[in-house]
Design a protein that fits this description.
The structure holds two protein chains of two kinds. By secondary structure, chain A is an alpha/beta fold. Chain A has eleven helices and twelve strands. The chains are: A alpha/beta, B alpha/beta.
């Protein structure tokens, strides 16, 4: 197979996001990741709905489809069922996936169709110019709620784990290396791989994630999970997470008799999602926010199950072509 | 009943007969009717059926609202409608009698389950006292059969529980009607053996009860004669009985096979379209992929996704679902991808009359989307020709890369008739308009004649491109906000559909090619319009029938036809949508209207008398 580089995946279209938008870093990370996947260029599809992030497919030199608001998972499902050989990447935002497209989002996860979903979560509506989204922090003042929102936000992790998500990862837009690593793992995972990207909107919701991504705080505010490794964080990796009476706690190794052996070891492959949900819920200032692959479990995929049924039916076929069906059963001759 | 006595004084030969089975919605009347239909079809009768059932699965027992009916018209002559009124009514309870009392021919036979004619059931049906005791059914051949009691008696040694025994009573009624019309019972016997394969007790019980009904009819004196309906003189060929939704499904299977495409259906269950999903879901062995989506929107969107990836993709729905799919269809129009949207119309607006028929989605199909978004609109017109129109819709969408909306309706979808089976080898070829590897590909470059762009399917090397709902630049397909380009593209999308009229056949007229009265119809009303016009033609009236299947674009000779008649009447099961469409397209003509919005098809009698009135003025 010919060797591809990031340039092979850059289209000739001018990128039109606002200067300083977090989307640029995600686009670059994606263009660098695809050559690592060892797949043919013509086998990728980028599919999106509506929103700032949904312009993404225009900038990728692959097959692409900029569809309608909220419905990208449904298009992606049809694509994957029609041709299971394709690598399908859905690009969506918090409004597209969790408001207008909430229904399709949960059903894609439930079915576990083998696609990858990049959820650009900036906790705001960008393209429609600044209204609150289903992930906006309660009380924020926006044009559509100048006195502060009264909406309780969704937690993307709780929502998707509740919908039986088999793969959930999280990353911040300021960490391109981790993004690449997660994109590669997402593609390898069979089933719906959901990646929440905490993405900064410089215009309408600047610094909404600054308590996690701020340069001054990030060492203590971020924790990158790795399967099979103890859950450690901090500038010198001397802090960790333990489970105490069904609750997570932060500890410092060497204090209060805590040793490395007391620290929780991350098991992304555990079918029970309880601990994954607890880890994903952690937020500063009490906890660092969990990044990396939080959950990656084996579960049969919708596309594979459908194709197995079809193969089985073909092997046990009563009819091998349409004429045999048309002329079958109760017929008579005139 | 047109009849002549044959040599055997006990058997009367009929040209045609209308039978209606009516009972509670749990009484199994649909199954009874279908069995009688299949048996008659195998005997070579021409036929048409009309199932009519409530929206509730088990509507309040014994009430008029809960009556489920199945009407069948069989004949040794050409049959085009399920019949206006019944020669024979089977009424399993007082409500069934009440619901149908105006639809029985004077002097016809009424078989009632006398066991259900008690004070409690009279009250449920809204009768103060027994309708049999006043004179309202004088002059009818009333056959009082103790169906419930005799069914129990027949099965007194059966191992079945009381509920299952009670359920078998429809087979008793079927047995009576089989005797009346000299039908063999083997077809139903083998049906029961397959249906209840896992429960031999049920098979035995149902067969036993059917025979008991047959023998009962043979014994009682109430039936002075039985009847036969000889086989119809149909063109040579192999026939089968089909329902509209089934024929529609098979048309898509045939089209996919001939186009060498995989068939993909994205759909959400909705009455009366669900049977297309059910039928196609059975045929995974033919490679069909059916996806029961989370909603109507996901149904159409998944189909567009599959279409982009090379399938023959369809979505099926009814009126409310078409409303939800509007934005998706607009995207398919903008991206110029193949897509067939089937709307099996029902009564509206809103939830309306889910189980009743209507033609009121025409304007929605033509215009129910944002922006200038023209789609090809076709309509099937008989249960059997749903096969041809599904095939034709697929051919147009794959060759022209533009969405097609195919209108059927509840009457066609659930109705049945004999179909001279068409071999896939005899259907026209389908040549999908697809770009190949190595082509110098520009997504929005188009064929000069038909104005269709080529589609490039993901997985094809070197043809990577992006589609979407934003306006496309002519030729390149890049996003464009250029004002001149937008106007140009709107015109191209519209002209692409207009040019189809050069390809589709000219509109035909049945009857006189010119004269006093032109009767116009479209879609599912063909049978009743044809029957009415046929009768008028036999009396040498100056009348022609122009029945449309191509709605957008209209056939190129439409105006010429209109100009050859003194008077034009447009008949449809809505408030005049096609009439208005014709007014918009053909100014200078007077389009009179004949409309009905009752959830039922036209009767031939009402059409005939209205046409006579128009002809006399």
């Amino acid at each position: 197979m010919e060797k591809l580089t990031n340039k092979d995946f850059s289209s000739d279209q001018e990128v039109r996001w606002c200067p300083g938008c977090g989307d640029y870093a995600i686009l670059r990370a994606m263009q660098k990741s695809l050559p690592l996947l060892n797949r043919k260029k013509e086998d990728f599809i980028f599919i999106s709905g509506i929103g700032c992030s949904s312009r993404f497919p225009y900038y990728m030199d692959t097959y692409g489809f900029h569809s309608i608001h909220g419905r990208a998972p449904a298009f992606a499902t049809g694509m994957k069922l029609a041709n299971p050989n394709l690598s399908i990447w859905q690009i969506t935002g918090d409004g597209d996936a969790l408001a207008i497209g909430g229904n399709h989002f949960i059903h894609a996860l439930r079915r576990n169709i083998d696609i990858n979903i990049l959820l650009f979560n900036n906790e705001i509506y960008g393209l429609t110019k600044g209204q609150f989204s289903p992930t906006s922090k309660k009380g924020i003042k926006t044009k559509s709620n100048p006195h502060g929102t009264t909406d309780e936000p969704f937690s993307p992790s709780d929502l998707s784990l509740g919908a039986k998500s088999s793969f959930f990862a999280r990353v911040v837009d300021t960490n391109p290396k981790l993004m690449q690593k997660i994109f590669v793992e997402a593609e390898a995972h069979k089933g719906t791989s959901l990646i929440e990207i905490m993405q900064n909107c410089v215009i309408f919701n600047d610094k909404t994630f600054s308590s996690i991504t701020g340069k001054d705080v990030k060492k203590d505010a971020q924790l990158t999970l790795e399967h099979g490794k103890p859950i450690l964080y901090g500038a010198t990796m001397n802090k960790g997470i333990i489970l105490n009476k069904f609750k997570l706690e932060t500890v410092i190794i060497g204090e209060n008799g805590i040793t490395i052996d007391d620290i929780l070891v991350h098991d992304a492959y555990e079918q029970d999602s309880t601990l994954h949900a607890m880890l994903a819920r952690m937020r500063p200032p009490e906890f660092p926010a969990a990044l990396g692959v939080i959950r990656s479990v084996k579960r049969s995929t919708f596309d594979n199950d459908m194709n197995s049924q079809i193969d089985h039916e073909k092997k046990n076929a009563k009819f091998n072509n349409v004429n045999e069906l048309l002329f079958s059963g109760d017929t008579w001759n005139v | 009943m047109q009849s002549k006595i044959m040599n055997n004084p006990k058997v009367v030969d009929l040209e045609k007969v209308v039978i209606k089975f009516a009972g509670d919605s749990g009484d199994g009347m649909q199954l009874t009717g279908t069995q009688f239909t299949d048996t008659s079809a195998l005997l070579g009768n021409d036929l048409a059926t009309f199932p009519d059932y409530p929206a509730e699965i088990r509507a309040p027992q014994g009430t008029v609202a809960g009556v489920s009916g199945f009407q069948i018209h069989i004949g040794s002559i050409d049959i085009n409608t399920p019949g206006d009124i019944a020669d024979v009514l089977v009424a399993m309870n007082p409500a069934a009698l009440k619901a149908n009392k105006n639809f029985i021919k004077k002097g016809g036979s009424i078989i009632i389950n006398i066991d259900s004619f008690n004070q409690r059931d009279f009250e449920k049906a809204g009768y103060k006292q027994s309708p049999l005791e006043d004179n309202s059914f004088e002059g009818y051949n009333l056959i009082e059969a103790p169906i419930t009691k005799l069914t129990r008696e027949t099965l007194k040694d059966s191992k079945l529980d009381g509920k299952s025994i009670g359920r078998a009573k429809n087979m008793f009624a079927l047995g009576i009607v089989y005797w009346m019309f000299n039908r063999p019972m083997q077809q139903t016997e083998s049906f029961l053996k397959t249906k209840f394969k896992k429960s031999p007790d049920l098979v035995e019980a149902n067969i036993k009860v059917m025979h008991a009904g047959y023998n009962f009819a043979d014994t009682i004196e109430a039936l002075s004669s039985s009847y036969t309906v000889l086989s119809a003189k149909l063109p040579k060929g192999t026939y089968r009985n089909v329902m509209g939704n089934q024929a529609m499904s098979w048309g898509f299977l045939a089209a996919a096979e001939n186009a060498k495409k995989e068939l993909f259906l994205g759909s959400y269950p909705i009455t009366p379209a669900s049977d297309i999903l059910h039928e196609l879901a059975k045929h995974k062995n033919l490679g069909v992929k059916t996806f029961q989506a989370e909603d109507e929107i996901a149904g159409v969107c998944s189909a567009i996704g599959a279409s982009f990836c090379g399938s023959l993709a369809i979505t099926t729905t009814s009126g409310p679902g078409l409303a939800l799919k509007g934005e998706g269809i607009g995207l398919a129009i903008m991206t110029e991808l193949p897509l067939v949207v089937v709307d099996v119309q029902r009564g509206g607006p809103s939830t309306g009359l889910p189980t009743k028929t209507e033609q009121s989605d025409l304007m929605q199909a033509l215009y129910g989307r944002n922006g200038e978004s023209p789609a090809v609109v076709l309509a099937s017109s008989t249960p059997a020709n749903c096969f041809d129109w599904a095939y034709q819709a697929s051919k147009i969408t794959l060759e022209h890369n533009t969405p097609v909306i195919l209108l059927s309706d509840g009457y066609l979808g659930n109705g049945a008739e004999p179909w001279k089976i068409k071999s896939t080898n005899d259907m026209p070829k389908i040549n999908p308009n697809v770009a190949r590897e190595g082509d110098d590909y520009l997504p929005y470059a188009r064929d000069k004649k038909i104005l269709s762009r080529k589609i490039a399917i993901p997985g094809t090397k070197g043809l990577e491109h992006r589609l979407g709902g934003l306006e496309k630049e002519d030729i390149t397909g890049n996003v464009s906000y250029d004002p001149e380009n937008h106007e140009k593209m709107c015109k191209i999308r519209s002209e692409k559909i207009n040019r189809l009229s050069n390809i589709i056949p000219e509109q035909k007229i049945y009857g006189n090619e010119s004269g006093n009265l032109l009767v116009i119809g479209w879609g599912g009303t063909f049978g009743s319009l044809y029957s009415a016009v046929d009768t008028l033609l036999k009396d040498e009236n100056s009348v022609g029938l122009c029945h449309f299947n191509y709605i957008n674009p209209l056939p190129r000779n439409t105006k010429e036809i209109l100009s050859k008649f003194n008077r034009i009447v447009v008949c449809e099961l809505n408030a005049g949508q096609f009439a208005n469409y014709l007014r918009m397209n053909f100014q200078g003509f007077v389009f009179e209207q004949y409309n009905k919005l009752q959830g039922f098809p036209f009767t031939s009698i009402e059409l005939e008398s209205h046409f006579k009135l128009l002809l006399s003025k």
